[in-house]
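Moderator note: this is an archived Q&A kept for reference. The question asked for a predicted structure of one protein chain; the sequence and the answer are reproduced below.
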Amino acid sequence: LWRLVLRLLPIAAVVVPWALFYDRTDFLPSPASTLETAVALLQEPETYANLFDTARRLVAGLGLGFGGAVLVSLLMRQSPWWRRFFAPYVFATISIPALAISLFALMVFGLAEIGVYLAVAITIFPFAVVSLLEGLDNIDARLTEMATVYRFSWVERVRHVALPEMAAYLFAAFRNVHALAWKIVVIAEVFSQQTGVGYQYKDAYSFFELQRLVVWGALFISMVVTVEYGILRPLERMAFRLRKRAEKETE
């Protein structure tokens, strides 16, 4: 019960002042009217189609960007030549504003979804590389020496040395870029798509429908929280349990 109260406190800290002071503003809608709008939207199949479109674009862009980051960080750790080759691109893209990347993707790809995928992938790529490379540089040198003595192949080094040692950094990097990817996909949808949460933001803003804007914001936050606490954190706990079990078996 105490844990439930603690989790509800942040929601109450927003809802209670909103209910008390909304009528002292000119534009803030009431909680009751917003709830009515939420009920109406949740009864429309189009609402779930828009949420699914955003989730699909997020998965594609996140997979593309994070997968590329894992590959590049492994190459940069493996060879100084690759580190010098990729370093300028990593530190150049990390300084480019996400809005500029989204606009560039719109200009190049128009309304095609590939523009959203690339906007997400390019934005999260350098942040993931920096985090993963830090973890790779902190791998126990004794394990690296052992892999050299036993003549591990590159694949064996990744499987038996890098991945177990990198588990914490992998999950930390993925959770960080996962949060960033949600923001980027919505920004890209605002400029280039006709469906999705970002498009609904733009549509509600165009008609100044604050109730819809608040409801779509709440739906978006619900999606992010559901993925974080319903998928990522359980997977993280499971991965660390498997790692501890493997360590005990090795001992």
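Archived answer notes: The mean pLDDT is 84.
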